[in-house]
């Protein structure tokens, strides 16, 4: 990608994230975002079709910058969630208000679709890496879609709680959903 295009996109993404810390997302106009980014409104539309597209890119970039790509899932029952799961969920906690809006009932279908896609890819990789037989009778795409939906559902429900429970608690809930209804706790 052209350096100028990348610079403008980063400026717009940063402006959106900054402004979202100051006021509700619904109050952020394209003009306000463009002004904060130091570009004109037409530049915004050269790079993005709407605010939700910018939001999806901004959250993806923030996740990548924080090193919060989805953790490698070893689909093997253990008493504790994989180490990277807490780090992954920390990104959501850091941007809780934006994710509440994006994943909520009046949220962004694009953000939800991208998150589900990332998680589904993670599940496919995890099943392949661990040679899990849990999904032998099911196409991997079906298993990945099911687990991705559950994971996004847990993240969404967790973010809606007030006060927001600690990321370690959320990681435990998420891990229990990934492994299924069996007892995943370590024996006393």
Features:
single chain, 188 residues, mainly alpha, 9 helices, 0% strand, elongated
Determine the strand fraction and express it as a percent band: under 5%
Q: Measure the end-to-end span.
A: 54 Å
Quickly count the helices. 9
Average pLDDT confidence is: 85
**Rounded radius of gyration (Å):** 18 Å
What gross morphology would you assign? Answer: elongated
Structural class: mainly alpha
Give the SSE order as H and E letters: HHHHHHHHH
Largest beta-sheet characterization: none
Helix content: 55-70%
Protein topology:
Blueprint: H1 3-22, H2 30-37, H3 41-47, H4 51-65, H5 83-94, H6 96-103, H7 109-130, H8 140-160, H9 167-179
Helix pairs in contact: 1-2, 1-4, 4-7, 5-9, 6-8, 7-8, 8-9
Describe the structure.
The chain has 188 residues and is mostly helical. The model has no long low-confidence stretch (mean pLDDT 85). α5 crosses α9 (167-179) and α8 packs antiparallel against α9. It has helices at 3-22, 30-37, 41-47, 51-65, 83-94, 96-103, 109-130, 140-160, 167-179. The chain is elongated. It has nine helices and no strands.
């Amino acid at each position: 990608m052209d350096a100028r295009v990348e610079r403008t996109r980063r400026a717009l993404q940063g402006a959106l994230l900054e402004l979202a810390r100051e006021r509700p997302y619904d109050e952020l106009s394209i003009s306000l975002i463009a002004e904060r980014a130091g570009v004109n409104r037409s530049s915004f539309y050269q790079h993005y079709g709407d605010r939700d597209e910018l939001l999806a890119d901004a959250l993806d970039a923030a996740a990548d910058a924080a090193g919060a790509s989805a953790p490698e899932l070893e689909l093997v029952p253990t008493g504790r969630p994989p180490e990277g799961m807490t780090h992954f969920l920390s990104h959501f906690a850091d941007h809780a208000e934006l994710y509440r809006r994006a994943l909520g009932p009046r949220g962004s279908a694009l953000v939800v679709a991208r998150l589900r896609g990332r998680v589904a890819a993670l599940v496919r990789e995890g099943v392949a890496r661990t040679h899990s037989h849990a999904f032998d009778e099911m196409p991997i795409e079906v298993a990945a879609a099911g687990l991705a939906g559950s994971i996004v559902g847990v993240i969404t429900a967790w973010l809606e709680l007030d006060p927001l429970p600690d990321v370690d608690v959320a990681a435990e809930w998420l891990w229990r959903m990934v492994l299924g209804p069996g007892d995943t706790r370590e024996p006393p």
